[in-house]
Amino acid sequence: MTTTTLTDEERRPFRAQLFLEQLEAAGLSPADLVSLQVAGALPDRVSSADFLAKVRVAAPPGSAHVYGTYWDLLTEGLTHLCGCFCEECLGVFGRFDPDGEPLSCPCGTEGCCGCAKRHFFHPDVASCAVRYEGIGDKTLAAVTRLDIETAQRWAQTRAQKRWATRNNQRAARGRAQFDHTGKSAVEHVRRAASFVFTRALEDPSTGVRANVALQAPEPARPTSASRAYTEVQLAELWDAIFTTGGDDPELDMLIVWFHLETRARRGGAIRLSIGDLDLGQRYAKLVEKNDKVDWQPMSAELQRSLIGHAVESGDVVAWTAPGLDPRAITVDDVVAGRARLRPDQPVFYYRPSKEQRADGTVVLVPHPLTRRRYNTLWDRICRHLPWADQMHARPHDLCKLGGEFVERACGYAIAKAWLRHRDRDRDTTLLYTKARPEEVARAFELLGGRNHPLAEGALRTPGQK
Ligand SMILES: [Zn+2]
Ligand SMILES: [Zn+2]
Ligand SMILES: [Zn+2]
Questions:
Q1: Which of 18, 118, 247, 294 keeps 20 to 30 A from 238, CA to CA?
Q2: Residue 294: beta bridge partners?
Q3: Lowest mean pLDDT among 182-191, 236-245, 447-456
C-alpha cells in the first residue's frame, strides 16, 4: 500500500467539507454562524475558575483534599512567589504581612530585580518581576499543554523554595540537608489538572475536547527498594505530626508510637481494647487480619500514655478507690488496684464531643478511632514531606522500619518472631534458631531504647549492656 502525503494547501478542501458536514448535522448554515456572532448571541465559554469552582463542590472529599492546593495554584496563580533562590527572596518565603497576605520579595514590589541569574532555577524565569498568574481567567478550552507545563514549573519552584528554606533552617541547627527536586509537585499539578479536564470532557458547555493535562510531562518515579524510613526521615515525620496543623497531634503521636513499637497493623490499633494491655507483663494483645492473635512487648511509657489517653478521651473507668479522680487515673493506680478499667472499651479515641442532655447536664461522648484517621494523617504527612509522597508512604512502613532494625541488630530468627511472621514457608533453619520470647523482648529494648522486664533472661552477645 502506498500513502501520499498531502500538503496543507491540498488538505484545506477536505477540512472545509468535513466542517460543512458537521454544520449541516448541527442544523446550522455558515450564515447562521456569522449572524449569531454579530448579534452577540453565542453563549460565553465557562472560565477555568468558574468550572473549577463547580468541580470542587462535586469532588469527593479525598480528591478535594489532595488536589485543593494545586487547584488554587491553577486558578489564582502564585503572584507573591518569585523564581529566585537568593537569600533575600528565600527569606520571605512562607511569611505573611500583618494583614495575613503572603510576603513578596522586595524586588517584586519595586519592579526592579538585582538578583543574580544563578539564583533562578528555571532558565526562562530570570527576574523576580516574572510571576505566575494562573489560568483562572482563561476558558478551559483555551488552556494548552504549555499552560499546564508553566503551572508545573511554578509548583516545582514553590516546592523547592519550601525545601531550600527548610534546609537553611536545618543548616543553622547543624542538621542534614535534603536533596529535593520538587518532582512530586510536578506530578500533583498534572493529576490535579487532569481531574478537572476529565470532568470538563463530560460537560459540553466547556468546549473542551482533549485532556491537555495528560500531554504534560510526567516525572519518573524514583525506584525505592526499601520502604523503611531513614533516621532523618523518621525525625521529619515525627516533626510533621506536630507542625502540620493536625487537630489532635497527641493522638497522631500515640498512633505512630504504637505502630513503631508493636509493628501492629491499622486493625490492631483500632481493635485494641483496654483488656488487651497487659500492664504487669508489659505486653499488648494484638488481634489483626484474619483474627490472628499475638502478644507483643510494649514499653511502660507507651502503656502509661495509652491509658492516660483512654481515660481522658474514652469512657473506660469502671471503679476508683474513694478520693481518686476518675479522670486522672494512671497505670500505677490500675496495677495497684486503686482503679479498675473496663476491659471491653477501646484504647484509641478521637477528641470527645460535648453533648447536652435533656436535663441540661453536659456529657462527653467518646469517639473511638477509625481507619479514616490514618488516611488523613498520612495524607497530611505526604503533603508536607515530599520524600514521603514520592515513596508513597503508608502506615505499614513503620513496621518495615522496626523489622529492618531488628533483623540487622538481632538476626533473622528474632526479626521473624518480632515481625510475627508465620513459619508457613517451612523455614527449617528456624526450627533450630527459633526466637525465644525474652530474645524478642531484648530486640524490643534495643529498638526503642526502653526496658522490658522479660528481656532480663535473654542471651547477650559480648559487649551488649
Ligand atoms: Zn532574589
Ligand atoms: Zn530579585
Ligand atoms: Zn525575588
A1: 294
A2: 286
A3: 447-456
Ligand nearest to the CA of 81: 3
Spatial distance between the Cα atoms of 234 and 243, rounded to a whole number of angstroms: 14
Ligand closest to Cα of 107 equals 2
User: Per-residue pLDDT averaged across 411-425, rounded?
Assistant: 67
Question: 257: Cβ–Cβ under 8 A, 6 or more apart, which residues?
Answer: 302, 305
The mean of the pLDDT values for the chain is 83
Rounded distance from Cα 106 to ligand 3 centre (Å) = 7
Query: For the residues of 68-125, what is the DSSP string, one character each?
Result: HHHHHHHHH-BTT--SB-SHHHHHTTT-B-TTSPBP--HHHHHT-----GGGBSSTT-
Inter-residue contact 206 to 140 (CB < 8 Å): yes
CA–centroid distance, residue 91 to ligand 2 (Å): 12
Q: Is residue 286 part of a domain?
A: yes
Ligand 2 centroid to Cα of residue 157, in Å, is: 15
If pLDDT is split at 50, 70 and 90, which confidence band does 174 have? low
Q: Is 395 exposed, middle or buried (0-12, 13-18, 19+ CB in 10 A)?
A: buried
User: 52: which 3 cell numbers?
Assistant: 473549577
More confident residue, 454 or 434: 454
Distance 185 CA to ligand 3 centre (A): 20
Name residues with Cβ closer than 5 Å to ligand 3, which is an ion: 82, 84, 89, 105, 107, 128
Residues, CB within 5 angstroms of ligand 2 (ion): 84, 107, 113, 115, 128
Strand 339-341 relative to strand 317-320, pairing: antiparallel
C-alpha cell at 451: 526496658
Residue 280 lies in a domain: yes
Percent of the chain with pLDDT over 70: 86
Higher-pLDDT residue of 224, 390: 390
Residue 315: give the domain boundaries. Answer: 231-377
Is there a domain that residue 456 lies in?
A: no
Higher pLDDT, 465 or 390: 390
Question: What is the pLDDT at residue 28?
Answer: 84
What average pLDDT does range 80-109 have in this prediction?
Answer: 89
Q: Cα separation of 169 and 164, whole Å? A: 9
Distance CA 249, CA 447 (A): 23
The cell for 252 is 497522631
Please give the model's pTM, rounded to 2 decimal places.
0.48
206-227 CB burial, b ≥16 within 10 A, e <16: bebeebbbeebeebeeeeeeeb
**Spacing, Cα 115 to ligand 2 middle (Å):** 4
Per the structure, how many domains does the chain have? 1
What is the distance in A from the centroid of ligand 3 to the CA of 181? 20
